[in-house]
């Protein structure tokens, strides 16, 4: 399982997240996505902890908490949804003509 942490300050660092989440158990991994073009942080992150019990404890304690001037959203991360291809559905180009 992974934890989704949303509504984060764009100034957030991995060390900041580890510091907050380590109160609830051992942090195994932190990932802060950035925009490809600008390299700017996107305002959310993913945190993985040693086990599900620690993750549940962190979610319960931190969801809705005020941190760095923002009310953060903390919940279980969902699997990434499959996206449609950019060409509008992946149909065979030859059949269009």
Describe the structure using short key phrases.
alpha+beta, SLIRP/GR-RBP-like, two-stranded antiparallel ribbon, 97 residues, RRM_dom, Alpha-Beta Plaits, 6 strands, Nucleotide-bd_a/b_plait_sf, 4-stranded antiparallel beta sheet
Element layout with pairings:
Elements: E1 3-6, H1 14-21, E2 27-31, E3 45-49, H2 52-62, E4 66-67, E5 70-71, E6 73-76
Antiparallel strand pairs: 1-3, 1-6, 2-3, 4-5
What does this structure look like?
The structure is a single chain. The chain contains two helices and six strands, in the order βαββαβββ. The protein is α+β, with helices and mostly antiparallel strands and 97 residues long. It has a single domain (2-76), classed as Alpha-Beta Plaits, CATH 3.30.70.330. Strands 2-3-1-6 form a four-stranded antiparallel beta sheet, covered by helices on one side. The model has no long low-confidence stretch (mean pLDDT 89).
Low-confidence stretches: none
Shape: globular
- The CATH class assignment is Alpha Beta
Instruction: Report the sheet-strand fraction.
Output: 15-25%
| Helix count from the secondary structure assignment | 2
Distance between the termini: 47 Å
CATH superfamily: RRM (RNA recognition motif) domain
| Residue share in helix | 10-25%
């Amino acid at each position: 399982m992974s934890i989704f942490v949303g509504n984060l300050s764009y100034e957030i660092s991995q060390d900041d997240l580890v510091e907050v989440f380590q109160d609830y158990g051992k942090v195994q991994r932190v990932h802060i996505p950035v925009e490809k073009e600008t390299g700017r942080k996107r305002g959310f992150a993913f945190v993985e902890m040693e086990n599900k019990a620690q993750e549940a404890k962190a979610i319960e304690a931190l969801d809705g908490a005020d941190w760095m001037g923002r009310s953060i959203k903390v919940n279980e991360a969902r699997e990434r949804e499959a996206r449609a291809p950019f060409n509008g559905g992946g149909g065979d180009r030859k059949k269009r003509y």
